[in-house]
Amino acid sequence: TADHGCDPCHSGTDHTREYIPVMVYGNEIKPLNLGTKTGFCDIAATVLELLNITGSVNGKSFADEIRR
Question: What is the pTM assigned to this prediction?
Answer without folding.
Answer: 0.73
